[in-house]
Specification:
The protein is an all-alpha fold. It has one domain: Globin-like (Orthogonal Bundle). 68% of the residues lie in helices and 0% in strands. It has five helices and no strands. Helix 1 packs across helix 4. The longest helix is centred in the C-terminal third of the chain and has 27 residues. The radius of gyration is 15 Å and the shape is globular. It starts with 6 loop residues before the first helix and ends in a 6-residue tail after the last helix. It comes from Flavobacterium limnosediminis JC2902. GO terms for molecular function: heme binding; metal ion binding; oxygen binding. InterPro entries: Globin-like_sf (IPR009050), Globin/Proto (IPR012292), Hemoglobin_trunc (IPR001486). This is Globin. Keywords: Heme, Iron, Metal-binding, Transport.
Amino acid sequence: MQDIRNIDDIKQMVNSFYAKVRQDDFIGPIFNEQIQDRWEVHLEKMYGFWQTVLLDVRAYSGSPFPPHARLPIQKEHFDRWMTIFTQNIDEQFAGPIADEAKWRAEKMAEMFNYKIEYFRNANQKPLS
């Protein structure tokens, strides 16, 4: 198995991951309801995001948290997202960049979960 090396690998990683997410009984309905018919736009955004994070190519700008702030999700949803993400990477890639992708995803899931819980508990409106 090879490591994640270029935009084609990023697209393979993103497309295969979201194909699994969309079919998942637990988190699929949340993604499908939120994204609806905008999957192509979402996937393009994810290509840019992961290309920026993993390959140091400035292909994404913006703040990834606000679109997630009001979703009806909890730690269990992030755990399932992480399980699918990790399995998807491990099925296709091996190497330091693949490991970095899993580490970055885990840190993002932890941060998003923490921030969502903070805003819920503080009864505040999240940043948008």
